[in-house]
Specification:
This protein is mainly alpha-helical. The chain has three domains: 90 residues, no CATH class; 80 residues, 2-Layer Sandwich (Alpha-Beta Plaits), CATH 3.30.70; 33 residues, no CATH class. It is 21% helix and 4% strand. It is built from seven helices and four strands; from the N terminus they run αββααααβαβα. It has a two-stranded antiparallel ribbon. Strands 3-4 form a two-stranded antiparallel sheet. The radius of gyration is 28 Å and the shape is flat.
């Protein structure tokens, strides 16, 4: 609510407007010269999932075409348009773009539906390490300019912070399942020491002999990173 007499003048060096924006009908038409063929509904340019308007070869995105109004959607809209325009100029079919109202991503992403929760980890195998605090500029230095406040990590600090990663759901060939299996049903396919390239194969260093495995679940229970899951075997199917 306006308060009479509360206004005042403030001297500044730079003004950066950060306000909500919407399409001002008519202001964008001269730039297209002419704008025929563009369909507008509800004050926004109509686009498909690739960002293509109803006019051939013209793409739109962001607040002028979508109702989301967030920076994340605007950035995603720009990336979507760049990919779509590249396909358009190559003469390729504009397809494979996820629905605008479901995701900000420009392309579909393959995500493993099995998410490893913190409580799924076996913390008995991990040492607790303190988080590396990132150095920052002092308040006195921050107010003097617009330089980056966070100063980043040194190489040693970055490596120390990376070593705190649990590698959730990823087998790094720790031999825990091999050691604890009471039926000796798990066999190594390679011998330690394991090369790093093998660790990235996520469990390719072991093989389970199901003729001896009785499904006790000890391997899954002891696995530090929840890289082993057990499912009930379906013997009969309709």
């Amino acid at each position: 609510m306006p308060i009479a007499g509360s206004e005042y003048a403030l001297e500044v060096d730079t003004v950066i407007p950060a306000i909500a924006q919407e399409l001002e009908d008519g202001s964008w038409k001269p730039a297209l010269s002419p704008a025929e063929g563009l369909k507008v509904e509800g004050g926004r340019i109509v686009i498909d999932e690739a960002g293509l308007t109803t006019r051939e070869g013209v793409f739109a995105g962001g607040d002028v075409a979508t109702p989301f109004g967030t920076v994340a959607h605007a950035v995603g809209s720009g990336k979507r348009a760049a990919l779509a325009i590249d396909e358009y100029l190559r003469g390729e079919e504009l397809s494979g773009f996820p629905p605008l109202d479901e995701t900000v991503h420009a392309l579909p992403r393959d995500i493993d539906p099995s998410i490893v929760r913190f409580e799924d980890l076996n913390l008995a195998y991990f040492d607790e390490l303190e988080r590396t605090e990132q150095p920052q500029k002092s308040v006195e230095e921050r107010v003097r300019g617009f330089k980056e406040v966070n100063l980043g990590f040194s190489e040693e600090e970055a490596q120390a912070e990376a070593e705190r990663c649990f590698s959730c759901g990823t087998c790094n060939l720790c031999d825990t399942c091999f050691t604890f299996c009471p039926d000796v049903a798990i066999a190594r396919l390679v011998s330690p020491p394991y090369p790093m390239s093998l660790a990235r194969l996520n469990g390719a260093g072991y093989e389970v002999n199901y003729d001896y495995c009785k499904g006790c679940g000890v391997c899954a229970e002891e696995c530090p990173r929840f890289a082993i899951s057990i499912q009930e075997e379906i013997r009969w199917k309709k």
